[in-house]
């Protein structure tokens, strides 16, 4: 932002961001558009020159005058009311972010309508209609949003959508995909989440391939929640991952999303109409069989166990309704069975949480692999204390979301344990695949 | 009135601009470690609309194969990771160059994205930022304005195109460049060469810009009064610039003459109402190898009548290039190899007189008309002729980006882009150009200072000028700084190495080897006359230590002995032991002897 001084000067002279101005500075005269300054030195004017370049010139000693007022941007018309076979729901995120040139900020604000304008190919795959639900970065998505989204999807299905695509920020997409996997049971249509790792304001964005393949996936005979993203660094094929199995495994690559401990559902290539299954999946349930179970607790903690973790910290988790511990190795936490004088143990603190009625669920911090609490003493102690998760191969995020959702359904510890350890949406596998990736 | 301006792109001698990769190129023959395939597509403008020009370009459905190399690429170049902060070394060099050009610097650097639609950048844009403006350069014809110095990233180098795919190497992508633009005040083609040379030398004098083939590129902007502005890209050799400029003026003059002639023939406005016609039947049984081969592979022959154009299509407008070549360049953008036109000798293609007559008939041609033919699959042939017609219909000189050819002529590349489409690079915040930063940028020696110092060092204007222009300047400076004799170093670099190379004894890596050689010379390991022989042995594969073994200096008693054996005859001694003897010592021995004889 510009300084208060500059802002009041602009007001006095009737100059607004976007206007054509003349800046007479000690370094010379510049004529160009006055640009916004979302960051950086607030006492420096940003001018867009006629050749398109922006440059910054200090306001000190410079005189600004108005040359020409800018033309206000044309407002967009209302979203057309026509319904298509596929509903596209916008939640924000990189797939739908753009630079607001008048303010210079990046907004998660491209409406699905703009997406359709940008990707006319969509119409070749399916007829669509669009709905902007949130304008959020994915890190701001929380349990209440998951419930609102699940309800919106259920409405679309009720209104006749043959498939649903959700545009979502990638950072927490796997939490949302897991949540709606539990909330939407007996799905008669595919629900496909997608996003982009490279912003949509660049010609190389992955949003196009991801979106088009998602629409294509939403037409398949599939009754599950999936995540559709690039399978590799090339713009050729996408993977459709199971909503409860997927995890973002890289901060920036296009192929950041991987199915953990399970193959992706399918390989997708809309260009050649390829939907190649890589594992078994649920077909569409009969129309009318959708059950919405959107009740969810947002009072659950997800904690990574680490060397030096303090019992006091574990005890402080007693204000939560449930705790997921990302345990080491096969499912371990510091128990200090050999009474080493430098070691501390958190086992008693964990036991106390469980005794006080707070379910404690384990998940592997190795991400890949299955928990097994019977191999070492440490695990057996935990098992005896009543932790949940022995034998599970779920991701920490999925275990976390599932506990949130289960606590929305049941309070009784026995019922919670039973629900947690039952496969509800493909989140638990009983066979470990030969390959990791 | 011809207006000539220059745009110089110079690679900087430092790491890449927006990541930590080195600016080293992989070996030309190196196999890529990773090949990825991408597509680019238009993006929404600030108004939420798609730019029509980029939509047309991206709409071609092209794919791009990017060849990446572990040694010179990371995730940033393959657009799998956001750019890092701007390389401060590159920024410092750009600011130093700006000082040498008397430019004013921006208070804040804003990095922009310049749309690049040909796939030469994985992101679909080139990052560029204005660092300085309003500079000047003194020349023999008065000062020339330097309105802009931008720091930007190098594009990827094209490997080739096949069908709808183009392949690019990514080792070059992201190397820092400065772009320096002059005002269009260059007076003549000769003046152009002077300005280009001077800016080049000025940059090299800093020792902070890259050297070698492809590290500097000069684009020339030329506009003529009745013609148009044309940007000529890709001149590798500076000496080509005057010829390029002359030929461009010739081309525009030639085109204007053709345009005037057509207006006379049409008695006013030139109006072409014609469509590509399938003339395959007229040539179905031709013996013309070009056509029959095409027909056998399923191609068709399409023709286009250009009314009242007879004699003009074959008219030369640049050496070896006719108006027809211009039409052909446009047709080639549709992927065909070229055109055949009626001002050519049909015998060249083994098209008989009867066939030509049949052709004229099926095209419905009248006296004074001309034709253009294309042999290609039907759709492509029609598209190619449509492009040729688009050019023929232009009743003006089109503003174009043209490629410099080896012979000093130019070929059409694409229309000159309109106002460059730039938008902010949101991944990299603006950079404050502080007083401290400017103060820390050492304005090294300027060109004039350097000239004067070299003259003082070498005492010879010709050698000083040669050194100033030499690609070995930085090596020279380093060796002299380490204490070597300037004249000896200059002679070794500019004369000895060159003549050794001519006789086939090329010293591979002088930068690595010469410091050791001159250090040994300074220690008295050999005399300077031995240097060519030692270098010859090194070129032959010997290590430095082995190469100098046979050249240890003969002195003292041993030298006196040899002098005696050869009768104290200077000439005889030197002719036998030239590379082993310090002439000064020998002289003193001979002087002593003479003295003795006198006594």
* SS content category of chain A: alpha/beta
Number of strands of chain A: 22
- Give the number of DSSP strands of chain B: 23
CATH class of the largest domain in chain A: Alpha Beta
Class derived from helix and strand content of chain B: alpha+beta
Strand composition percent of chain B: 15-25%
Largest sheet of chain B, in brief, is: 11 strands, mixed
Helical proportion of chain A, percent range: 10-25%
CATH topology name of the largest domain in chain A, in short, is Rossmann fold
Q: Specify the overall morphology of chain B.
A: elongated
Helix run count of chain B: 19
Overall body shape of chain A = globular
Strand content of chain A: 15-25%
Largest sheet, spatial ordering of strands of chain A: 9-6-10-12-13-14-17-18
Features:
heterodimer, A: alpha/beta, SH3 type barrels, Rossmann fold, eight-stranded mixed beta sheet, B: 599 residues, Gyrase A, domain 2, eleven-stranded mixed beta sheet, four-stranded mixed beta sheet
